[in-house]
Amino acid sequence: MQFAKAFEYKKWANSQLLDFGERQFSKLPENDGIFFLRILNHTTVVDSLFTSRILGEPEKYTADNTVETPSFSELRERMAHNDTRLVQYVMSASKDELDKVIQFNFIDGDIGTMSVEEVLLHLLTHGNNHRGMASRVLAENNLERPKDTFTRYLHLVEPTRRGSAVLKEK
Asked: Which residues 6+ apart lie within 8 Å of 47 measured at CB?
């Protein structure tokens, strides 16, 4: 269940960042705008690659990014698709499925071996890292960034967690 919350958060945080980026895109220098789109596209490609590996499906990509830079609408569609698949997967995955060890070929040709749980942790941390890089592009250009922390997400989706709890004295 915790994986489900983490991937629901990832989906929300991706959408938040795309919203902020798209709204302010015209204020970014061209190279920063391209970087913003490409770094998030990279995370989407990596999500797709590893989801295919987990599910034993053919991979759609032969590199860790696409040659072309997607539009916001293309990127939003790809991210939402991958995020939805990951949320659905983790909501139904059994402990045995999470413990399963898979072997695969990385894009560079090396062989990798990871448990499904390790792959999922990688996707969460990888996405966080690159969302941070994209968000920094906004900050460096004095633009507004999303307040997309996990705690904020939890309090938005479960408002009773905020302000109503009484702390116990130690």
From this structure: 79, 82, 83, 86, 123, 127
